[in-house]
Each structure stands twice: as C-alpha cells, then as structure tokens.
Amino acid sequence: MRLRERAHRLARASAVLVVTSVAAEREAIEAGVSTAPPASADIVTLEAGVGVANAAAATAAALAQRPFAAVVNVGIAGGIGVPVGGLALGTASVAADLGADSPDGFLSLEDLGLGSSTVECDPDLTERLATRLPDAVRGTILTVSTVTGTAARADWLRTRHPAAVAEAMEGFGVAIAAARAGVPFAEVRAVSNAVGPRDRAAWRIGDALTALQRVGSALATLRR
Q1: What is the pTM of this model?
Q2: Which CATH superfamily is domain 3-219 in?
Q3: CA 49/CA 203 separation, integer angstroms
Q4: How far is CA 74 from CA 70, 150, 212, in A?
Q5: Is residue 122 within 8 Å of residue 185, measured between CB atoms?
Q6: What is the per-residue pLDDT across 80-138, written as a single tens digit (0 to 9) for each?
C-alpha cells in the first residue's frame, strides 16, 4: 500500500484498539464500555498476552488487518508514587531494562547509540483521556521484562526515571507497533501494588480491575 493510500485509510478510521495482556483486564475494560450510552466510540479489545514481544506482535497484526484511529494500552501495574487502586496516565513509554550491563552500570539504547528506548504518548489523545480521568497521575510508564521485586531495584528505577509513575510489561511494545503504523498511542494503568519488595499478600488486583472499568467507560466516550 502506498503512503498516500495508507494516510487516507487512517483518516477515515474511527475505532479505538485497546490492548490488554490478560483476560481479566480485557473483561474489565469491556464491562466499563458496556455502561456507555449509545453512539459511543467503537472500542475493539485485544488480549495480546504478557510481555513486550507478545504486545508488539499482537498489536502490529491487529493494525495490519484494519485501520484504527488510536491504540491504547491498558492493564494493571505496579505504582511508583501512585496509590493502590489509582490510575497512571502515561506521558511516555520507556523500555527501562532494554540495554546492556557494564562495570559502570546499566547502559540504555541511547547510551549505546543504538536508538531510543522511549516512545512519547500522543499529547492530544492523552489530554482527552486526562479530561475523562481527572484523578489519573501523569508521568512516564516503564516497561520491563522482569518485574521489580526488591527495594534496591525500585530505588534504581526511581533514580534513573524520576518522572516514572508505574511499571508494567507491555507498553513499549504496543507503542512501537503503533508508532510504526502511524497511529496515535496512549497508555493507562491501574495500580494493584507498589513497586518494590515482592509481597503478593499486599496486592489488590480486584481494586485495580475495578479501576480499569472506569477506564473502559472513559474510552467509550472518546468520540465526543
């Protein structure tokens, strides 16, 4: 397809692709969407699987099948300064552990001269979501392949990414697929636990899934 033809297809797109990693997240979004009034935005949900590779591959495949007006990655996450049950709204998605180890510490893609580990979220789409989710805390959302489970790792992330508000495992993959397709991208996360020492007893997944229903309701109003 020629670039001009692709741009025309994107201009006519109206549906929003909402990418989750697991069924419980997708079902929470769909529950929220179901409460929206008639003539709401056309929301298409995609359960991509866990991790950045699954997220990128599934999103790219979906974007190749039909045009979308926007792509939003949603799901539960660890919070960095955001309380359990709260929402984090991304300003950028950062692959926080994509790089190389060295005697002098971690080297990012930027340090190595191999590209960028950051994809900025679309400012217009993010602002529209912020209007609908006014309590969401804005900041960088980190994508990691290994979830943080120690205080030392949490401190390292905070030092390296002072604007970070959450940690998850898929956002950067979804963002890269959307960027390559020329489709606006945003990321919203509901916090189930604080980033730090791994303590499953302290996780509040139910509260986070309830918060995701609010996100679903908000996404359904994007047309207006």
Answers
A1: 0.90
A2: Nucleoside phosphorylase domain (3.40.50.1580)
A3: 21
A4: 13, 25, 8
A5: yes
A6: 999 999 999 999 999 999 999 999 899 999 999 999 999 999 999 999 999 999 999 99
| Cβ(137)–Cβ(81) below 8 Å | yes
Amino acid symbol at 133:
L
Provide CB contacts within 8 A for 72, sequence distance 6+: 16, 17, 18, 19, 125, 129, 185, 186, 187, 188, 219
DSSP per-residue letters across the chain: --HHHHHHHHHH---EEEEESSHHHHHHHHHHHHTSPTT---EEEEE--SSHHHHHHHHHHHHHHS--SEEEEEEEEEESSS-TT-EEEEEEEEETT-EE--TT--EEHHHHTS--SEEEPPHHHHHHHHHH-TTPEEEEEEE-SS---SHHHHHHHHHH-TTEEEEESSHHHHHHHHHHHT--EEEEEEEEEESSS--GGG--HHHHHHHHHHHHHHHTTTT-
Tokens describing residue 3? 């670039």
Distance CA 24, CA 212 (A): 10
pLDDT at 5: 33
What is the rounded distance in angstroms from the CA atom of residue 66 to the CA atom of residue 150? 42
Residues of the chain with pLDDT under 50: 1-12
